């Protein structure tokens, strides 16, 4: 199939994967448009890595269909592997080679023509040129992750699959990394990225939330927030954890979470929630205000409502 003729960079329907009796990926369908940054979120062990591996042909689904860059995920996995950039969770380059040597090695693996120019260009475009001769083992987490991105971009893929690329990386390096992702997306490169960071989720064009193998919500951040139809109140003052305990027992309060100096109380029954918050705050030195429900409120809500179906017959 001609990849440029397809509407989506990734288009998969009803993917399923079991490991033993664990239903690790459960009827997952999703589409990633060209030039889109698509965030993949969910608790540890929810099936993000497995889904990514199914989409790029590294694992075969038990059932389901789909294409990645226009190639069939079951029959054309070799073409997919050649055309996507996949950054795994673990940094997998050689510590005792320099940055240039690591990139040169990858270029050899892909049997690339003009290796020297390709590596020079990668070093330049990701700001690695000044460190080209530094040993990889001596690099900070942020620089290692930049090298990993350069390596998976070397063969000029049209799609990047990034599995928690910024885990353990400091905020400045994470910001730089995301600026780079947006530059790539502006050039038409699609990105599917898994993350546990809320600020990163907010930088994605679209999101999907997966728990226990099931996609619970997907869309823009606003669509994901709206899908849960939660109202949220913020409560400021002292002894918030005590108040949180009290609120949780009251009708209309589906969730309480402390965020820094504020307690967020959320619920689906808007009137009952307001009544509960006002009752709980009455006569106390507290400030209460309705606020926009945030992505984090919604993710915590979805996670607490999703049930563990692993090990259950399906
Ligand atoms: N090869 C395998 N054999 C057996 N079980 C596996 C295998 N790979 C993954 N699993 C199990 O499948 C489930 C989903 O794992 P997966 O790595 O896809 O989740 P994840 O969402 O990427 O997690 P994390 O956020 O921790 O990286 C987990 O319970 C994991 O232990």
From TrEMBL:
**Top-level taxon of origin:** Bacteria
The molecular function terms of the Gene Ontology recorded here are: ATP binding
Q: Does the keyword Membrane apply?
A: no
InterPro entries of this UniProt entry?
AAA+_ATPase (IPR003593), ABC_transporter-like_ATP-bd (IPR003439), ABC_transporter-like_CS (IPR017871), P-loop_NTPase (IPR027417)
Q: Which UniProt keywords apply?
A: ATP-binding, Nucleotide-binding
What CDD domains does the record tag this protein with?
ABC_DR_subfamily_A
Q: Does the keyword section mention Cytoplasm?
A: no
UniProt domain ABC transporter: residue ranges:
10-237
- Signal peptide start-end: none
Protein name per UniProt: ABC transporter ATP-binding protein
Species this protein is from: Dyella lipolytica
């Amino acid at each position: 199939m001609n990849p440029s003729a397809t509407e989506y960079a990734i288009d998969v329907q009803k993917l399923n994967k079991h490991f033993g009796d664990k239903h690790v990926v459960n009827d997952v369908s999703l589409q990633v448009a060209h030039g889109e940054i698509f965030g993949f979120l969910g608790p540890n062990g929810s099936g993000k890595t497995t889904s990514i591996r199914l989409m790029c042909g590294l694992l075969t689904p038990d059932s389901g269909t789909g294409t990645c860059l226009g190639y069939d995920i079951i029959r054309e996995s070799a073409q997919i592997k050649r055309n996507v950039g996949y950054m795994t969770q673990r940094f997998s380059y050689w510590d005792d080679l320099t940055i240039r040597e690591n990139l040169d090695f990858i270029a050899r693996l892909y049997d690339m023509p003009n290796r020297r120019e390709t590596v020079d260009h990668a070093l330049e475009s990701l700001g690695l040129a000044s460190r080209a001769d530094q040993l990889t083992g001596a690099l900070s987490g942020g620089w290692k992750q930049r090298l990993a991105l350069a390596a998976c971009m070397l063969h000029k893929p049209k799609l990047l699959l990034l599995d928690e690329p910024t885990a353990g990386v400091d905020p400045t390096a994470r910001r730089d990394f995301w600026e780079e992702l947006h530059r790539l997306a502006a050039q038409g490169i699609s990105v599917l990225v898994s993350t546990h960071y809320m600020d990163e989720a907010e930088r994605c064009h679209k999101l999907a939330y997966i728990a226990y193998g099931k996609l619970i919500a997907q869309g823009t951040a606003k669509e994901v927030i709206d899908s849960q139809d939660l109202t949220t109140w913020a409560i400021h003052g002292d002894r918030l954890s005590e108040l949180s305990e009290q609120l949780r027992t009251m009708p209309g309060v589906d969730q309480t979470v402390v965020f820094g100096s504020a307690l967020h109380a959320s619920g689906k029954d808007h009137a009952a929630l307001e009544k509960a918050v006002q009752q709980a705050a009455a006569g106390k030195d507290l400030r209460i205000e309705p606020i926009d429900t945030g992505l984090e409120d919604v993710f915590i809500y979805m996670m607490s409502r999703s049930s563990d179906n692993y090990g259950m017959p399906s």
